[in-house]
Structure formats: structure tokens, C-alpha cells
Fold this protein.
Amino acid sequence: MLIRPETAQDLTAIRAITTSAFFGRIHGTGKEYLLVEALRDAGALSVSLVAEAHGKVIGHIGFSPVTINSKECGWFGLAPLSVSPEMQRQGIGRALVHEGLGALRKIGAHGCVVLGDRQYYAHFGFHPCAELRLEGVPPEYFMAQSFGAAVPHGRVDYHPAFDLCA
Ligand SMILES: CC(C)(COP(=O)(O)OP(=O)(O)OC[C@H]1O[C@@H](n2cnc3c(N)ncnc32)[C@H](O)[C@@H]1OP(=O)(O)O)[C@@H](O)C(=O)NCCC(=O)NCCS
């Protein structure tokens, strides 16, 4: 399996994987593919990686800048993360998150937040964080990790494209 940045040739496959991965999920909206595309169109898909095996795209992860107290400060949000349903539980999601966090560090990010399953994201160094809050979300589902700097305090807002997926 190869993890690499997306290219223009991957966009249809990313749409299909995002749609199928979230289909029927309790927290899925069915609009996650629109989120990826809206972020890309806005130039806000700062890191976008695909997992490829035998020439086929089987997973995708995206990261976009978040604001803290309405200011951009080098923090990013992980979302969405998708693995083809027939390829799940084989370590592909794990590889995408690891590579994605590495790519974020390379572009000088200070930290990353994620909204999701606490047990799953704890594997990657995310933990609930008293300093940061996301409006309307119970704190146990909202996690953060700093890449070294002190964690800022305040309200986190994802890119406006996330409103499309709400
Ligand atoms: C979440 C998702 C990306 C995980 O991808 P994956 O390739 O199946 O995950 P991995 O195989 O790398 O699993 C890594 C670990 O998480 C565990 N895990 C995987 N899916 C899990 C799930 N749905 N619930 C709980 N644990 C899970 C695995 O057991 C593994 O742990 P282990 O190594 O200790 O056994 C995939 O299930 C998916 O696409 N889900 C639908 C979309 C979604 O919910 N995305 C995340 C929110 S943005």
C-alpha cells in the first residue's frame, strides 16, 4: 500500500470512497464528499492524502485549517477520514492518520484537532483537551494534540465548508 498526496486523477475515487465509507454511519450525513470538494475549491484542503493499493485508491484523509478564537494560528482539523468499506480494519485508516499528521508537521502546523471516536483517535496521540472547545459538542468527542507549542485556549471553528455537511 502506498500513501501519497491526492492528484487531479483521484477526485472521482475520493468522492466514491467518502460516500461509501460514511453510508449508513450513525454520525454520517451523506454529504461528506461535498465537504472534501468544498474545502478543495476553497483552497483549504491543506493536506489531502490517498491510500493506494494495486493502482486503486482505497482510502482518503483530509486536513483543513481551524481558527481558535476566530484567528488562524497554525492549527488544523482532521476530517474527513474514509476507507473503502471492504478494506476496513486492515490498518489503512491508521496509516493515513500517521502519514497525515506527519505531513501536517512538515508544513509547520502547531497542532491538530479531531471530532470522533475517542478510543480510535487515542491511538494517534489525540486526547480530550480542556483548553479547546467546539460549540455544541460534548468535550469527550473533541480531541486535540499539540506538535510542541503550548495549546491555545478558546473556541475552535472549522472552515465554513463544514456547514455544508452539517
Ligand atoms: C474510521 C475508519 C477510517 C477506520 O479505518 P480502518 O482502516 O478500518 O482502521 P484501521 O484498520 O487502521 O484500525 C485502526 C484501529 O482502530 C480500530 N478500529 C477500526 N475501525 C473501528 C471502529 N469503527 N470502531 C472502533 N475501533 C475501530 C481497529 O481495531 C484498530 O485497532 P487495533 O490496531 O488496536 O486493532 C473506517 O472505519 C471508516 O472509513 N469509517 C467510516 C467513516 C468514518 O467514520 N470516519 C471517521 C470519522 S471522520
